[in-house]
Amino acid sequence: MSYVASGGEFDRDTDYITTRITADGRDGYPVEPGRYRLVVARACPWANRTIIVRRLLGLEGVLSIGFCGPTHDEDSWTFDLDPGGVDPVLKIPRLKDAFLKRFPDYEKGITVPAIVDEPTGQVVTNDFAQITLDFSTEWTDHHRDGAPQLYPQELRDEIDEVAQRIYTEVNNGVYRCGFAGSQAAYDKAHDRLFRALDWLSDRLENQRYLVGDTITEADVRLFTTLARFDPVYHGHFKCNRQKLSEMPVLWAYARDLFQTPGFGDTVDFVQIKQHYYIVHTDINPTQIVPKGPDLANWLTAHDREQLGGKPFGDGTPPGSTREGERVPAEHAA
User: GST C-terminal domain spans which residues (predicted)?
Assistant: First the structure.
């Protein structure tokens, strides 16, 4: 499978299943504890967002989770981490099975995160951007006591504006570099990415979080790209003006979030590297996974507390990660 854009500039396909799970069930899928399964891959930054938000809001008890392996073939993400290669709840070996169960002629990409209706085995949505917003706004009756306000009403316009720029320029910007099919397209993408990172650095120099004094949806969206920057994007995607660890403000900001319960404890660096270096064979035909970089520095002091703010506002951090959902110690920083 080829990932590099043959025409030069990479253009992401954003045609997702936009069905929503809502409190009033207007799309036919009401919020119901125990009804749905969130399917993710720890390697994927888009899926990693949903793992973080589910944990921060305390939805573990009402929304089950299934983990695909770090690699996939041309056809589908697979449940190769589970016994027999079959998801224990959905009883399927490939995520594609849930898509075809609802849309027999489905021809788009099989992407994570996806939410599957357990009773029918049918996919409900893979619209990653909307999923986490709905966790914050539609699942409120099931939030844990002390859950943070990740998408507060009074800050939504600003969060949306910042998040949109993060998506186009950073989240997708690293892929625009990595999948560029010409020198000109790469040069343009590289400069565009680092202009955005410089903007973020300036924004965060004197404030602890992107919007307001607490963690919001915008921080979650930026964090998953920053966590993958040095292990993957700097080398594999040629985003190499600087490493994250050479950008003082963003590096301190990323470490601050990483050391906050709900963020770093969801990051599996081994699976992240396996995914990119093994799956993208047109970029890395040997499929050799690099040993570096040293990740212990993620746990060093960041000193961002002096900027004020409280990560959870008037709320509290989430408790320990559930058994069966923990990142193996040897895969973490």
Answer: 152-279
Q: What's this model's pTM, rounded to 2 decimal places?
A: 0.97
Calculated CA dihedral for residues 159, 160, 163, 165, nearest 10 degrees: -120
> Which candidate, 159, 103, 134, 127, places its Cα nearest to that of 47?
127
Residue 147 lies in a domain: no
CATH number for the domain including 281? 1.20.1050.10
Range of the domain at 291: 153-331
Residue with tokens 């193996």: 328
Domain end residue (candidates: 80, 110, 142): 142
92/174 same-domain check: no
Q: What is the per-residue pLDDT across 233-290, written as a single tens digit (0 to 9) for each?
A: 999 999 999 999 999 999 999 999 999 999 999 999 999 999 999 999 999 999 999 9
SS3 content of the chain, % helix, strand, coil (to 5): 40, 10, 50
Place of tokens 């903007």: 199
Q: Which residues are catalytic?
A: 44, 175
Give, in order, the Cα–Cα distances in Å from 80 to each of 103, 104, 113, 174: 23, 23, 16, 27
- Report residue 331 as tokens: 């895969």
275: its two tokens: 């995914």
- CA dist 26 and 21 (Å) reads 8
